[in-house]
Design a protein that fits this description.
single chain, alpha/beta, Uracil-DNA Glycosylase, subunit E, 4-stranded parallel β-sheet, 3-stranded antiparallel β-sheet, globular
Amino acid sequence: MDLMKENRVIHPLSPVYDANSRVLILGSFPSVRSRETGFFYGHPRNRFWKVLAEVFEDAVPETIAEKKAFLLKHGVAVWDVIASCEIKGSSDASITNVRVNDLSVILDKADIRNIYVNGSKAERIYVKYMENQIGRKCIRLPSTSPANAAWSLQALAESWKIIRYNN
């Protein structure tokens, strides 16, 4: 399969949340690696899990079960803004023909106090398609993607600490 060929892809991952979730973190769309591993932020160079471990002063979860338990333990819900799109490989820049996820799945069942987006693409999609419908603004955090090399792990963790203190 040519990963650089543009294909319509349907989001394969279910959101992670429970009734105790207070923070919602939205990415744009799962990378090829995340789709292959079957869980969010599956690329080994994505710093999402290391950043959250720093933020919550906890061990970095390794397995999918550990990652789910980590999120729920800390009141964090995770999903993506995009339900399906055309995308080349894992490139956010290539995303077109977006259909968004229905966030009421989470918002109707959890007392989400703040909605954060992981990077500028997620923010643009949220603002364009979801903000007015939901009636809530999002807070953009710097992307944990390895493509965002300008941000060190420590700088990301400092910026992301807002999710802990606004929880």
